[in-house]
Design brief:
199 residues; alpha/beta; Maf protein
Length: 199
């Protein structure tokens, strides 16, 4: 009986439908979705970029232990206004507080993507996008809170949804704001040999 050859496949270490859709957009289809449940609380005094990188690598480490010898991709997205980190709001009060802080101001969306190859080689990239919100009226904030689009969103908003009308300007990667910097992700996968036919 001939033994079946082990063929590494791609595992997405995330439950985010947005990240899956972004990967699919550029023709990358993970065979396995294996999210990791981790504590995303920032350490005291932790910088936003350090937090994004730490969380992405922590997700990677957990999922890699369950999928030895496969390709693993993990990511994390942090929204920061100054040094203040805006976590995913857990209720309407926090969501409204986030939007009030972002109103009329620039903020940063820091995304970190990690790719672990079958040989154990790890590559990661952190990307920062600057976003400027227009000044929000109370009625706009209340409407957004009511439609509950803010749930499970870094910073409490989804740029691919109704919040697009709040965004005055963007400097950097749009896909990074949605949940995964596609340019950097594609370059990593190409450079590591996962993608054979480069565009």
């Amino acid at each position: 009986m001939t033994e079946r050859k082990f063929v590494p496949h791609l595992v997405l270490a995330s439950a985010s439908t947005r990240r899956l859709q972004l990967l699919n957009q550029i023709g990358i289809i993970p065979k396995v979705i294996d999210p990791s449940e981790i504590d995303e609380t920032p350490n005291k005094g932790e910088f936003p970029k350090n937090l994004a990188k730490r969380l992405a690598q922590k997700k990677m480490n957990i999922v890699a232990q369950r999928n030895i010898g496969h390709w693993i991709i993990s990511a994390d997205t942090i929204v920061a206004c100054g040094r203040r980190i805006l976590q995913k709001p857990v209720n309407r009060f926090q969501a409204k507080e986030n939007l009030s802080l972002l109103s009329g101001r620039r903020h940063r969306v820091i995304g970190c993507v990690c790719v672990l190859g079958p040989s154990g080689v790890l590559t990661s990239r952190c990307v920062t996008t600057t976003v400027l919100f227009k000044r929000l009226h109370n009625e706009e904030v209340d409407f957004y809170i009511e439609n509950e689009e803010w749930r499970d969103k870094a910073g409490g908003y989804a740029i691919q949804g109704h919040a697009a009308c709040f965004v005055q300007s963007i400097n950097g990667s749009y896909s990074n704001i949605v949940g995964l910097p596609l340019f950097e992700t594609y370059r990593i996968l190409s450079g590591m040999g996962f993608i054979k036919n480069k565009i």
